[in-house]
Amino acid sequence: MKTVVVTGCSRGIGLEFVRQLLARGDRVFAGVRKPETASELTALAAAEPEQLTVLPLDVTQAAHRANLAATLGDRGIDLLIANAGVYGPVPDRLGQTDEDGWLETFRVNAIAPRQLVETLLPQLRAGNRPCIALLSSKMGSMGDNGSGGAYIYRSSKAALNAVGVSLARDLADQGILTLVLHPGWVLTDMGGPNAEITVSESVAQMLATLDRASSADNGRFIDIDGSTIPW
Ligand code: NDP
């Protein structure tokens, strides 16, 4: 049984992580921006109150991150899944830079994951073979950018990737792994109706990747099939 923290659990990939982690018996702390409207998540918590704790967590809010750390107390974190993310303003075309929207997207996608790790470092250090999983996107890859556009989302995920590599380097000697994951193109509100895989397939594959992760994977940008994505 692992102790797992997941962010952004109201819907989509985050909610499915909670479902699959509960099904395999893990102890889950699920952060959600608006608990009052996250009915599917709160129903899961009502069914498994010993296994699932739901916490209010807007990842950009320091007080929410501190409350999560206080709730965990001395409990170690074995797996931290930084899943919460936004696509940012649309349309995102040349000539229409939404500066405030860009900064807010950076806050959620790149800055908050670093701050979350900083806040939870004591619990990560106390974890069993602790691992940080950052939900990035292939759209953050420079090498894979063949179609342009999406300046805001792409750059926020590229920044997250840089955060991931630095975390991997800085925390390796403390035995904490950091993996940067692309979940595939997934049928969620963000992925849209034309996406290629279900949340169930995506999360099962990512959990399999995380289960077999070793020091050789530290700082890798990993596709849904386990292959390495170019930065
Ligand atoms: P969704 O848009 O379906 O869900 C996003 C989740 O993040 C929601 O739970 C949302 O909460 C939460 N969230 C947004 N902002 C915050 C915040 N400030 N604090 C806390 N929670 C927040 O996205 P997906 O499930 O599809 O995506 C999950 C992750 O996977 C994201 O990081 C995304 O970038 C990444 N990804 C997704 C792909 C896809 O094809 N779907 C492809 C590549 C990467 P709320 O309900 O309150 O808005």
Automatic annotation (TrEMBL):
InterPro entries xrefs: NAD(P)-bd_dom_sf (IPR036291), SDR_enzymes (IPR052184), SDR_fam (IPR002347)
The organism of origin for this protein: Thioalkalivibrio paradoxus ARh 1
Name this polypeptide is given: Short-chain dehydrogenase
UniProt cross-references to SUPFAM superfamilies, sorted A to Z: NAD(P)-binding Rossmann-fold domains
Alphabetical list of Gene3D superfamilies matching this protein: NAD(P)-binding Rossmann-like Domain (3.40.50.720)
GO molecular function term, any single one: oxidoreductase activity, acting on the CH-OH group of donors, NAD or NADP as acceptor
PANTHER family (alphabetical): SHORT CHAIN DEHYDROGENASE, SHORT-CHAIN DEHYDROGENASE/REDUCTASE SDR
CDD domains for the chain: carb_red_sniffer_like_SDR_c (cd05325)
